[in-house]
Design goal:
The chain has about 400 residues and is α/β, with parallel strands linked by helices. It has 12 helices and 13 strands.
Length: about 400
């Protein structure tokens, strides 16, 4: 009887504390909404993504109507520029607010900002839409690094390949098959320069298949590990370049050029970081209607891309409100629509109740392959440049 009474008392206390916590959370978010009223939020992204820009044009109208927040989309050529700006403000000890409220980032850029204590947070568990995020996805890990609530997942990248089914019946499903295919179809295989994000991801995917001990790739790179693990990669590329487009002496500058080469029939495969991008490219006439996306048999390198708040954001509360809206079922469903952007959702669709209907055309992801530690990315790019850049490899004309 005594044990039963104690158990009942503990349960009642637990329920009471949970209810009190929930009420505190609601009250805190209501205060955040009130603080956000009438403010301006500057969201910075890397330039060059038309689908993202068009999507944010829609979001601007929505957050203005719902929260009286003016959302301004700003762009920089790369993440390095915005990180340098934030770091310079920190070093100079500036007291006035910075120029960005939200920055779009991932991987090594997040690592740099966290290491220098340049991000506001943790804040993610304050967002009402966080509980419906699919926790089985890499939403708490950014290139092997714990996010610790300092960046909120916005969408997903998966390294996929695009081919034209009218010309290619069976595309290569591994990097070894890719070499065989290139030997059988000279000039039809290529990849972007590693200075481009698509080129760097191709190198990482190849390395994950060829490295003697792939587990090593998920920790900070060491010189001894690098030489041993990458030796098969350079041998593969030495062989591939002999049969590649332009004999490995020139490479596409970016994905747009790869798609143009695929459409013209100059090459047989293009690279994408969005498994749903094929339909968008078809709709825009960028590739043939018979094009299809696929992943290598080992899986697709998969990572979330994130939104973070700099330490000196002018309107941090309004930034949280905008980020929470961009994580909402309505905003995520619109983002996933291939006709608009096609960027995969980070939400657990099965947990959405009636909102689930917004995702009626949702396509499952390819097999997830975790992304290596970000330190390998710079090391791979530098070594590629040393080996092949010096041999005259240039951007294609």
């Amino acid at each position: 009887m005594k044990k039963s009474w104690i158990s009942g008392t503990l349960l009642a206390c637990s329920l009471s504390l949970s209810a009190a916590h929930a009420e505190d959370t609601r009250s805190a978010w209501q205060q955040t909404l009130e603080n956000a009223q009438g403010t301006t939020v500057y969201l910075n992204t890397v330039a060059g993504n038309a689908q993202l820009s068009n999507y944010l044009d829609w979001a601007k109208d929505e957050v203005k109507k719902r929260y009286n927040i003016t959302l301004v989309h700003t762009e920089t050529p790369n993440n390095t520029e915005i990180i340098s700006r934030i770091m310079a403000d920190k070093i100079a000890g500036k007291k006035q607010p910075g120029s960005s409220d939200i920055i779009w980032l991932h991987g090594k850029y997040f690592s740099s900002l966290r290491a220098a204590d340049l991000l506001s947070g943790p804040f993610v568990d304050q967002l009402p839409n966080w509980p419906v995020v699919d926790q089985s996805l890499p939403v708490k890990i950014d290139a092997t690094l714990p996010t610790d609530g300092y960046e909120a997942p916005w969408g997903l990248n998966q390294l996929t390949f695009i081919y034209d089914t009218a010309r290619t019946a069976t595309p290569p499903k591994s990097v070894k098959e890719m070499l065989t295919y290139a030997m059988q179809h000279p000039g039809k295989i290529t990849y972007p320069l590693p200075s481009d994000i698509y080129g760097r991801n191709f190198l990482k995917a190849a390395l994950l298949q060829l490295a003697p001990t792939p587990d090593v790739l998920y920790r900070d790179v060491k010189e001894s590990d690098f030489k041993l693990q990458t030796a098969p990669l350079w041998q593969f590329l030495d062989n591939l370049h002999q049969y590649a487009w332009k004999n490995g002496k020139a490479f596409p500058a970016n994905q747009a050029e790869m798609l143009a080469l695929l459409k013209s029939g100059e090459i047989d495969m293009a690279i994408s970081l969005n498994p749903n991008s094929v339909q968008y490219a078809i709709n825009k006439g960028l590739i043939a209607p018979t094009s299809k996306a696929y992943a290598l048999d080992q899986g697709a390198i998969t990572r979330a891309h994130f939104l973070a708040i700099p330490f000196n954001a002018p309107s941090p509360d309004a930034a949280k409100v905008v980020i929470n809206f961009l994580m909402s079922p309505e905003a995520q469903a619109r983002k996933e629509d291939p006709a608009l952007w096609g960027d995969p959702t980070i939400l657990n669709i099965s947990a959405l109740g009636m909102e689930k209907a917004r995702f009626s055309e949702h396509k499952p992801l390819f097999k997830i392959l975790p992304e290596p530690h970000p330190s390998w990315e710079d090391a791979l790019e530098a070594e590629w440049q040393r080996r092949y850049g010096a041999q005259g490899a240039t951007v294609s004309p």
